[in-house]
Design a protein that fits this description.
Length: 497
């Protein structure tokens, strides 16, 4: 009997009759190889999982808009900022960093804050975190650092010994370690935390002048964190707390918002500023470079399918648009290479053709073929350049002003040479601006974590790290030593000078 219901079909669109029973020789006999539907179902199921991200595997995401409220056209010609009231659609993916795709949302960790702006000049990816700084300042150290956040090769468990061994040997990590050990390391979901582009980027205006820039997103929901105990309890009660929190608020029309702001540094200031402005372990103090209002970012649309949108979203700091450029920040330079490479491995060479990653305006180039080409492959248009047939040209208006890099001698320069080795002032300042309650929680969290250091090098690692805390702030060092129940006189004898 004909009905209005949709017919069940194979992936090739062929309607089929039987979706409950496999075809067998007699009711109790073996299954026939010709039951193609059975193969198709099992084979597709076997291929449902794609490689999870090595970092930032557990995430949540939503679509939204950036609305421009202030004029920053004296700094940038980027069209996304060219008019007050202008709205640009975006996709934002939040994540934890170290855990696997099934790990708990309330782990102590930085949080990813990756935004894809669908602008008329192409997709701009600002792939940041909820922290303004990072653990290392040279990308060569990235893989080693991430290994310390993952599982021990022997025990297959997370290891406080690995983490503190690495951090104590890399004092450049101290600033980020302090932030992650504070209660901001366990935010109350994703709505109550700030976001940062973290790297220094550049802005280029209509007169082709360059400015250095830091991007900030201040939560309008207010900062709210779990304590260490609350985060631990939530890991057992609802490991998907942040996913559920974000999804339900958007479903209920309570759209989370962030105020977008920038810090701007004139190009020449970088040569004389007392802090290396391209060092990802440092912030630009607000007193020197105040926050400038830009607009409001709002998340207002849940994707209708998690895998299609959140899992397949691919962000790359390489993707900047006209009016926004890179900087010599070494970590940014490293990520320009490694992010698209990660996506080609995880999603394939045509990952930018997937709906969440696709530029909704225009793509015109000579890239053709490859696995999973779904964009029509540019039809019968020429696949080489230059040619006498199409109207595609490289437009010199998009050219950035030349960079004065200040040196032309290639070498392996020590990233922590004299003048680049103050790992302590900014963490110390941060500690001293915390409320007494925030300080107490920070100390408790550090002590809790450092108590996990074990094995034959326990004393060495503990003392080495303690030395860094003392250098950041004497009071902090004393409090941690006390929490670890160390004999201070004995410990001091073993401290490096
Ligand atoms: P300000 O006194 O102008 O601002 C202090 C900043 O610290 C605010 O942005 C505040 O964020 C943030 N903050 C407070 N508690 C924590 C925490 N536990 N973890 C991370 N950030 C926190 O400071 P300055 O600009 O003079 O910088 C002083 C120190 O503040 C820096 O050394 C750095 O450690 C930290 N900081 C600075 C930022 C910057 O871009 N200048 C950004 C973030 C931190 P909020 O406004 O959301 O409360």
């Amino acid at each position: 009997m004909a009905t209005n219901k949709k017919k069940l079909t194979t992936a090739s669109g062929i309607p089929y009759a039987e979706n409950e029973n496999s075809m067998t020789v007699g009711p109790r006999g073996p299954i026939l190889l010709q039951d193609f539907i059975l193969h198709e179902k099992m084979a597709h199921f076997n291929r449902e999982r794609i490689p999870e991200r090595v970092v930032h595997a557990k995430g949540s995401g939503a679509y939204g808009t950036l609305t421009i409220t202030h004029n920053i056209t004296q700094y940038t010609r980027a069209k996304v900022f060219n008019q007050i009231g202008k709205q640009t659609r975006l996709f934002l993916r939040f994540s934890t960093v170290g855990g696997e795709k099934g790990s708990a949302d309330t782990e102590r960790d930085p949080r990813g804050f990756a935004i894809k702006f669908y602008t008329e000049d192409g997709n701009w990816d600002l792939v940041g975190n909820n922290t303004p700084v990072f653990f290392v300042k040279d990308p060569k150290k990235f893989g080693d650092f991430i290994h310390t956040q993952k599982r021990d090769p022997y025990t297959n468990c997370k290891s406080a010994t690995m983490m503190w061994d690495f951090w104590s040997l890399n004092p450049e990590s101290l600033h980020q370690v302090m932030i992650v050990m504070s209660d901001r390391g366990t935010p109350y979901g994703y709505r109550h935390m700030d976001g940062f582009g973290s790297h220094t980027f550049s802005l280029i205006n209509a007169r082709n002048e360059r400015f250095w820039v830091k991007f900030h997103f201040k939560t309008l929901q207010g900062i709210k964190n779990f304590t260490d105990e609350e985060a631990g309890a939530m890991r057992g009660t609802n490991p998907d707390f942040a996913q559920h929190d974000l999804l339900t608020h958007i479903d209920n029309g309570e759209y989370p918002k962030w105020a977008m702001k920038i810090q701007v540094m004139p190009e020449d200031d970088a040569k004389t500023y007392h802090i290396n402005p391209f060092d990802l372990t440092k912030v630009w103090p607000h007193g020197d470079y105040p926050l400038i209002d830009v607009g409001i970012l709002e998340l207002n649309e849940n994707p209708d399918n998690y895998f299609a949108h959140v899992e397949q979203a691919a962000f790359a700091p390489a993707h900047v648009i006209d009016g926004i450029g890179y900087s010599p920040d070494k970590m940014l330079q490293g990520r320009i290479l490694s992010y698209p490479d990660a996506h080609r491995y995880r999603l394939g060479g045509n990952y930018e053709q997937l709906p969440v990653n696709k530029c909704p305006f225009m793509v015109a180039n000579y890239q053709r073929d490859g696995l999973m080409t779904v964009n029509g492959n540019h039809g019968s248009a020429p696949n080489y350049f230059p040619n006498s047939f199409d109207e595609i040209e490289a437009d010199p208006h998009y050219k950035e002003p030349a960079w004065d890099l200040g040196a032309h001698t290639a070498d392996w320069y020590d990233r922590n040479a004299e003048g680049e080795n103050d790992h302590y002032t900014q963490p110390g300042t941060l500690y001293r601006l915390m409320s007494p309650e925030a300080k107490a929680d920070l100390i408790k969290n550090i002590v809790h974590s450092m108590k996990g250091i074990d094995g034959p090098k326990k004393e060495l690692i503990t003392n080495r790290q303690l030395c860094h805390w003392f250098r950041a702030d004497m009071g902090l060092g004393m409090a941690i030593a006390k929490g670890l129940e160390l004999n201070l006189d004995e410990t001091m004898k073993h401290m490096p000078a």
